[in-house]
Structures are given as structure tokens and as C-alpha cells.
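Give me C-alpha cells for this 69-residue protein.
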Amino acid sequence: ISLVFFRLDAETVSISARSTGELKVQVSMENFGGGGHQNVAGAQVKKQKLEDVQAKAIELSRKYIEENG
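Here you go.
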């Protein structure tokens, strides 16, 4: 799983998620109100710190990998 985080503006953090094979990044991005396809997904999170969004996304991804990888 690959996660890229960046600021769109002062209040919005964007997440771009990619994976290969059976790992579904869409599942993690849905937790942030985003979506996409099984291997290509993303989300935009408003009014949260970049560091908090990163920590949560990484935690969710690790948990998903442990349960499904």
C-alpha cells in the first residue's frame, strides 16, 4: 500500500492511496469519507491536522494488512 498526503488548502488534507493485488485501499479511504476503486482511492479531510490524518491512515492500513494480507 502506498499513501501520499498533501494539503489542498489551509483546511484540507488530501490522501492518495494505491495498492496492488488483493489489498483494497478503498476500504481505508471510506473511513475518511472518500472512495475510489479497489487499488486506487483517495479522500479529502477537512479541518484536521496533517499529522493526525497521516497517523490514522497508517494505523488503518496496518490493521487492514494484518487482517487481510
